[in-house]
Here is the input.
Amino acid sequence: MGRTAHSVIASGTRGWAQARTVEVIVQKYGGTSLASPERIQHVARRVVAAADAGASVCVVASAMGESTDELLALAASVSPHPHVRELDMLLTAGERISIALLSMAILDLGREAVSYTGSQAGIVTDTGHGRARIVEVRSSRVVEALAAGRIAIVAGFQGVTAGLEPTTLGRGGSDTTAVALAAALAAELCEIYTDVEGVFTADPRIVPAARKLEALSYEEMLELAAAGARVLALRSVEYARNYGVRIHVRSAFVDTPGTRIQEEEGMEHTIISGIAHDTSEAKVTLLEVPDRPGIAAAIFRPLADAGVNVDMIVQNVAADGRTDISFTVPKDDLEQAQPVLQVIDRAVGGRGVTSDVEVGRVSLVGAGMKTNPGVAADMFDALAEAAVNIEIISTSSIRISCLVREADVARAVEAVHDRFRLSEPVVLQEVHGD
Amino acid sequence: MGRTAHSVIASGTRGWAQARTVEVIVQKYGGTSLASPERIQHVARRVVAAADAGASVCVVASAMGESTDELLALAASVSPHPHVRELDMLLTAGERISIALLSMAILDLGREAVSYTGSQAGIVTDTGHGRARIVEVRSSRVVEALAAGRIAIVAGFQGVTAGLEPTTLGRGGSDTTAVALAAALAAELCEIYTDVEGVFTADPRIVPAARKLEALSYEEMLELAAAGARVLALRSVEYARNYGVRIHVRSAFVDTPGTRIQEEEGMEHTIISGIAHDTSEAKVTLLEVPDRPGIAAAIFRPLADAGVNVDMIVQNVAADGRTDISFTVPKDDLEQAQPVLQVIDRAVGGRGVTSDVEVGRVSLVGAGMKTNPGVAADMFDALAEAAVNIEIISTSSIRISCLVREADVARAVEAVHDRFRLSEPVVLQEVHGD
Here is the structure.
């Protein structure tokens, strides 16, 4: 994971990275920050300020405001099931517009700037249209632009296959573009400018007293993102961890420090980082399945083959050789999963399938909980006092997740936030130790 | 000018062109034809009908409806003078959207289709952003798609420089893309689908009895386009003539034959093809310029250097060693030309500059007028009878143009159209011979 082993850096780039004397910063601006001509001009001033401060700046831009959704609606009005390759051709028009406009605005401020599409910036992906993964960054054009003193504006969210086909990286893809470029350029910092001020101990819309976190480890941010925190795309955090890219998530509108995401070493150590919640999953239960070896594989292999993401699997204690098996799937995948579930039920000799969309998941994340066995008990206790019933529990070494009624989610988040005193600057050891 | 000497055809393409057994057709659809999802689906059905009839079809698409103007307005709202390279990056988003949508609609009809940007289709241009000229067509991807039985959908109006920078070809550029691809693919026909039914003997909005022309020579179409007929971009006709590309201009909405543009040989021979008018030019007069050798160069070299297109130059008979010199320039260039004109006036020792924007040009075009000396006299006579004063006359071997008052243009067009009986199927020899 060290910063010396970046396979994504071409040898020419590495030479430049070693020889250069100026700091390289990658700045990513989301669609909300670029939603109007005035906001684009505002972003241009921020970018130029960073360049004036002496850094080489590479900007990654999302499409303006809701334009990606507008293009999706246009596609839907032409075709009921748009061809994935052509949909990628269409959607990549969005960032093409924003990068050109941002580059114009920066040029008007007297700074040299040049825009690049994902393809021009060398964002090479696999062929998974609509959800492509970056396989290589051939950043020579960006490197040349930066070396010549230009500000490089790169289209986020998009790439190109080795066969020169257009691709998109899926929702949150611009974050991944930014982190991948930061890795390829060996940038000192990857700043993610967004419409919130950073990562909070809980969603401030639910817990007004939620506190902005100064810093998080990659693992904590990964767990929070996986548990439903929307501030950073999960894949971009994975990429940052793998390549050691330092991230600073901050507001595009307010000039205050946000949240830094970096290696754990040297961080102020807290037990609990924050609480995430997610109401995008549904609970599925296979009733009275025969309890025999191989039954789990018989259930979950066909679902995986159908592309259904399964999470939070729990198997009840068997009674008279039969057991209920519950798990969560994205609500968006439920319709597609239904026929597969019926086939599975018949194949394993179960007694029916139920599904429940009125559930939500509340997750407590913190690197310190590994060494603090009381954390889970405290969380369950807080939920019990708030009269919140727990339907499924799952844990990792730094996360505890509870599936509850959807209507109870906000109350559960508040209760847990309160119990762990997350509004206070540092979570104290004695709260959890016993 | 023969079809065997296409320098734009790569060797691999030529092999394919010689070996293939199916006809290749290039179809170009303008923005009006693609202005809504319904119209895109309509175009998709037309394209598929051509493919079902057995042809290999390569489609060139403009941006939807007014979208290029909308992108220009967006640029203007961000930057008072948008950078030309970034403006091209921006504008090329327009066709990217239309090609993807058209390809989706064709795929929905059960036909294989694939869209290509100008860059992907190998439309290589010079670096003249906003008005780039095609220097080469590297059509291997399009050829491969057609050879594999796919319909290729190519973005019009846009190209890429040898240095991989985005470019646009200027207004009417999609026509040029279509003709260039037809040449590169050695296509049997280049169909230009537009919002009119073909080329008419005059603008039907002015002369309701105007007749649709079945066929025109390249030279006639060149003169009509240069004289203000908007149906085909001048540059595309030049390109078609140079590479012997047969063009069929026809309606995207009505399924009737339009106008064919081809080599003169074998065409039904008419004396007069049609009348074009143009109100986009202004008249400039340099007053009482000394009448000495080199004076014309001293006037028109600085204007050319300033990028001002000059037309219809006339020099009056000199009196006492001084003469007035009049010419036309595009109204759009007049503001930019003014300081240059003042400098010229002082340099040559003239006595002032006047300009007049309330003028219009009426042009009569016909390959047969070379051998019919009475045509010009008939035209002047018709204008005199209609009480239209002629301010400047200019001629080519197949065109006569008269500059008149702008308010007289419609009456002048009607009078000339009437005199030459252009509503009747064939202009008769005896009308003009004498």
Residues 84-108 of chain B form the longest helix (25 residues). Chain B has two domains: 11-195, 266-434.
